[in-house]
Amino acid sequence: MNSQILMKFALGVFMVWIYVAKAQDMTAFPPLLTGGQFEYVVQPGDSLTHIGARFGIDQSVLARMNDMKSSTRLLPGQLLQIDNRHIVPEQLEEGILINLPQRMLYYFQAGRLVAHYPVGLGRPDWPTPTGPFFTANLQENKTWHVPKSIQAEMLREGKVVKTKVPPGPDNPLGKYWIGLTLPGIGIHGTIAPASIYHFQSHGCIRLNQDDIATLFQQVRSGQSGKIIYAPVLLTQLEDGRIFLEVNRDIYKKGMDPVSLVENLARARGLSNLIDWHKVDNTIRLREGLAREVELPAPVQNGDTP
Description:
By secondary structure, the chain is of the alpha+beta class.
């Protein structure tokens, strides 16, 4: 009996090790970045939260990027510096890729990235699941049939319990719905645009209204996709520059970013080309943005440093 218990314990430890080791795939990331560096002119009604949600930047990071506090009130016409570069985690031949820690959705056609959007995802106590899927149905102006679990939450919070919400300005699904084969999960618009690039949903994937309108016209029923969990991404572009992106381990999967970066660098043969002080700073900040981490090019004889 004792030997059986010991074997079960050892098997359990081994399975946990396998899970942690494979929680993030060590395959090479494609040499692709999305986003860019540019100036944005503040519009009436803008806030750091809304701008961050639109471009895929944390409010606090956007504030630090512009030497201001997160609570700073913006003025129309004010110029903000934006850097919303992200590393593409994988290159699909066709379909949708969502990386949960990044809060980003990527859409591919014929092996080419044709669109990328920031998304809102499931809160930590109601996480968006990972795994492969197919687009099961596409609907405009869908009635929201409120799941029993959310009805129970409404009751606990003292809210009016609704069983369904018809199409219209109060429907949290927005105008467009892309249902997935993952149970109860869909990609849809939202009437709460500030929730984009946050973890506030009951598991579904929220997009800005303009983004879901565009994606809805491109996606077809039965198209494949997958949701992954890769908080740490490292890639080398064709021009030799090396970028690292470190996101928060929002669902507490126990990943060590230092080990992940070391393993990724070793697998790509980049360890001796990386400035590890820059890596340490990128890991410390966990900004969720692509940062250059390569060592400076050596100065040639006769060149001015």
